[in-house]
């Protein structure tokens, strides 16, 4: 089942006849992360601009995640049929048009429609992972995905702070102009460098979508997908709730919130570094298990500190680095696992797994935003993060238990 391309040329930056360079993959994945959170410090000012409630403006996070999740169901089979390169380029092009729509939106309803269409950038994240799996076998793919997403970890550390500064200096539209400029640069880089890595299927698109049941019947796929989904769910809940906690509970300015908001990315960077360094040594299952435990420890400690009366912005955002560490260990390894269950369906698996992660993330983001009030403080968010982290641990334990059962029975592990 370790099906990879054996006929790929050596990687050469700027040569679209060779596989994409690591720099290209990092920037493709990083662009998706930037679009997700760069504008978050601007939400209060955007609510004022459109004369609407913060809760309505906060829907721009949930609907983006929801449509991104739906879109990923189609991205995978489309890329298995037509290739990673064309689907990536078209997805970024849709994002560029949608970004202009956000800038010139005359009402909050129009803005939210274009914000939904910005999810076209999800192709960059999904297919950068699929391209890695095309090129490498399971444990090495986990290592390489770890290095790719280690670069991505820098983005959440920087982009909210940059977005907050742009908002204060030039207004919220400047944040979206910056996204448009970065998206255009990434499209040009992908056009110039991203060679095709997929063994393009000769099946019809209907047949391609018809292979979803093969994945859906796999216990291991569900285990890895749910482990990644629940681990990332803690972060998505953070995305939906942390702006409210920072601005309302702790009284931060947009620029200060942008600075603190990137705290999970510090841990995520470290977790991805450890993934890149040790996945081939310890195996993906153990790395996912450790990541799930880190999520539980981070959220559990934060709740405990608030309960004894010492909760503050520094403890809240500081312990988010532990959540980030857990995500950095869990997500790349779980992703490599679900892409390797049926390696000939790597694009489809990446899309479906991404849809599970993002769809669940959208629900958790909206739930976090709905539960938080000035009276509740940060408790609903932290409890939500702890619960999802516990379910992540249960999911990877399901994978480990099944593999041991099959090995004792002398059956192949599929």
Your description of this structure?
It is a single chain. With 414 residues, this protein is mainly α. The protein contains 18 helices and no strands. Helix content is 79%, strand content 0%.
Structural class: mainly alpha
Rg, Å, rounded: 20 Å
Describe the main β-sheet briefly.
none
- Give the overall silhouette: globular
The tally of helices reads: 18
Mean model confidence by pLDDT:
82
Question: What is the number of strand segments?
Answer: 0
Offer a quick outline of the entry:
With 414 residues, the protein is mainly α. Helix content is 79%, strand content 0%. The longest helix has 33 residues.
What are the salient characteristics of this protein?
globular, 414 residues, mainly alpha
Would you spell out the secondary-structure blueprint of this structure?
Elements: H1 22-37, H2 43-49, H3 54-57, H4 59-82, H5 84-103, H6 108-117, H7 122-135, H8 138-170, H9 173-193, H10 205-209, H11 212-216, H12 219-249, H13 254-261, H14 263-282, H15 284-307, H16 313-340, H17 346-371, H18 379-408
Helix pairs in contact: 1-7, 1-8, 1-9, 4-5, 4-6, 4-7, 4-17, 5-6, 5-7, 5-9, 7-8, 7-17, 8-13, 8-14, 8-16, 12-15, 12-16, 12-17, 12-18, 14-15, 14-16, 15-16, 15-18, 16-17
């Amino acid at each position: 089942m370790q099906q990879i391309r054996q006929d790929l040329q050596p990687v050469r930056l700027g040569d679209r006849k060779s596989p994409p360079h690591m720099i290209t993959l990092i920037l493709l994945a990083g662009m998706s992360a930037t679009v997700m959170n760069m504008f978050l410090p601007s939400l209060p000012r955007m609510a004022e601009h459109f004369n609407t409630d913060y809760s309505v403006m906060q829907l721009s996070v949930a609907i983006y995640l929801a449509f991104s999740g739906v879109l990923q169901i189609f991205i995978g089979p489309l890329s298995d049929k037509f290739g990673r390169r064309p689907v990536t380029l078209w997805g970024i092009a849709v994002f560029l048009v949608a970004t202009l729509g956000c800038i010139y939106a005359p009402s909050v309803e129009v803005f939210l429609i274009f914000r939904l269409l910005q999810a076209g950038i999800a192709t960059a994240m999904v297919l950068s992972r699929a391209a890695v799996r095309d090129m490498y076998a399971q444990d090495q793919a986990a290592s390489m995905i770890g290095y790719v997403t280690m670069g991505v970890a820098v983005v959440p550390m920087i982009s909210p702070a940059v977005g907050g500064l742009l908002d204060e200096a030039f207004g919220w539209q400047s944040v979206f102009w910056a996204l448009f400029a970065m998206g255009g640069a990434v499209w040009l880089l992908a056009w110039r460098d991203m060679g095709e890595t997929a063994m393009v299927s000769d099946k019809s698109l209907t047949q391609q979508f018809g292979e979803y049941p093969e994945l859906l019947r796999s216990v291991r796929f569900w285990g890895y997908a749910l482990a990644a989904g629940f681990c990332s769910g803690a972060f998505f809940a953070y995305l939906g709730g942390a702006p409210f906690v920072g601005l309302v509970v702790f009284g931060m300015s947009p620029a200060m919130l942008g600075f603190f908001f990137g705290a999970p990315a510090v841990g995520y960077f470290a977790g991805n570094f450890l993934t890149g360094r040790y996945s081939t040594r310890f195996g993906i299952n153990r790395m996912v298990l450790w990541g799930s435990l880190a999520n539980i420890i981070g959220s559990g400690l934060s709740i405990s500190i608030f309960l004894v009366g010492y909760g503050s912005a520094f403890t809240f955002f500081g312990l988010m680095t532990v959540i980030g560490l857990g995500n950095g260990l869990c997500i790349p390894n779980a992703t490599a696992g679900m892409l390797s269950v049926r390696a000939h369906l790597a694009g489809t698996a990446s899309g479906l797994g991404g849809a599970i992660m993002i769809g669940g993330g959208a629900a958790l983001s909206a739930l976090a935003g709905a539960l938080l009030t000035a009276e509740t403080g940060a408790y609903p968010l932290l409890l939500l993060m702890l619960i999802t982290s516990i379910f992540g641990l249960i999911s990877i334990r399901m994978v480990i238990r099944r593999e041991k059962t099959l090995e004792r029975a002398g059956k192949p592990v599929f």
